[in-house]
Design goal:
Length: 289
Amino acid sequence: MDTPTVVKKYFDAWTRRDPAAIVDTFVEGGTYTDPVSGVIAGQAIADYAADLFAAFPDLSFEVTSPGTMDGGTWAAQWLMRGTNTGSLKGMPPTGKPVAVPGADFIVIEGSRVRSVNGYFDSRAVPDQLGLQVIVQPRAVGSVTFGYGLAMQSGKLSKPGAISLTSLQVRSDQEAEEVRGYSRRMYGDIAKMPGFISLLTAGVGHRLYTVTAWESAEDTRQIHQSEAHRQAMERFYSADFTAGGMISVWVPAHISMFVRCNACKKMSDYEKTAGRCACGAEMPVPPPYW
């Protein structure tokens, strides 16, 4: 089989969205590399392609150059198109289309592919889907950086209890699995009476969730979530995370301060019954949490 035929077979497998057929174009131990996948081989290539097809069920590749051979490597430019109607890394679909140009450098061995080195702008997909990409150091001195997420119910209730969970994961893979369970739980929690808001954060391999409830009794509702049940089964199973803390805290004191639009002074909203000492009505306070 000549080189152009092998390359066509490889791209045809991608166009048919057939992970097994893609792997079948490679020699034993053949490798695939791109800015997102890293170096992968065998079943890992099929899994990577399957995840991509699940996120973009209509994914297509158009070879935009006829391809050239240089020093035993076949080079081809392509344009990837698709609509994000499936979950991408556990995130809900955006429904938005993407169009990403790229190039593959393919080494052929006999009638199969020895290696594929793919190049494209790794920020193109998240940018087109409206996703945030934050570039920051993992740590500077004693300061460790991370990320956060907040979910609000819209209630202005004063929290009667705070549930605090922290997990110590051992790898980025475990962290992603924990985030997957958490994303499934958010929908359940949002519907629970007494839920006010939550904040999650990840700093290094330490993951936190802080949830505000109207009462300590309301915190027990989390046990009704099927996603929570599965997460706890996984937590107590063998070889998952290094450990963690589950707790409920009842506040001893909470004050909400609001700035008056008239005199610009800050006042305790509850103590002043919503009216500033200057006589002006105070603005609606922000959520407690």
